[in-house]
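seq as requested:
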Amino acid sequence: MPQLKTYGLFISHAWEYNDDYYRLVDMLDGAPNFLWKNYSVPEHDPVLDPDDPGDRKSLIEELKQQIRPVNCVLVLSGMYVAHSFWIQKEIDIAVGYGKPIVGIRPRGQERVPQAVSAVAEEIVGWTTSSIVEAIREHSI
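C-alpha cells:
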C-alpha cells in the first residue's frame, strides 16, 4: 500500500459553537486511510485574547502563521459565520494565500452564509466521506 499523504488543515469556526468543531475533529481522526494535522488553535489553548483590541494585530499575525502552511481550510458553515469577525478574517487570510476552502454545512442546515459560498471550492454535507473526499480533491 502506498504511503498516505498527511493533509495540513485549518478548521475555521466560532468558539461559541465549538461542539461542531470537536465532532469534526473526531470524524477526521476516525476517517479510514486518512491522515491529517490540525493547524487550528483549540479553545482551551488560545494564543491571545481575541476581545482585547491590543491583541487583535498579534492574533491576525498568528492566524496567518497557522493558515500559511496548510493544504486546505475547512469552514464550519453555520449561519453564525455571517456574524463573526474572526471567521471572516480567517477566510480573508486563506483567500489571500490562495488556500482552497471547503465549506461544511452543519447537519440539518440548508443555507450557507454568502461569506462562505462565495469563496468555497465546494460545500459538503456533514458526513465523513464527503468531507474527506473534498479535502483530497481540493487540497494543494
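The domain at 10-138 is CATH 3.40.50.450 (Rossmann fold).
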